[in-house]
Amino acid sequence: MIYFYGRVSSKDQNLARQLEAANAYHNVDEIFVDKQSGKDFNRDDYQKMKEILQSGDEVVVHALDRLGRNKDGIKEELA
After folding, report:
1. Per-residue pLDDT averaged across 6-18, rounded?
2. I need a labelling partner for 1 at 20 to 30 A (CA). Which of 45, 49, 58, 68 fits?
């Protein structure tokens, strides 16, 4: 399965650019988005996505900083 994850930091920010990228990426099975800070990984849709991920699945993001705002935290999460 291929999942797309998008995130903006606040409710008034727009996800359009990220969703366009998701639609341009072929074969995305499901899209997850959060409108929350990237200070940690306690985000509703991100956690839902993690719960269903299986070995061999692919997660696509528009930019790595959409996963979070702390480089070390992102590296730890990916490991």
Report:
1. 93
2. 68
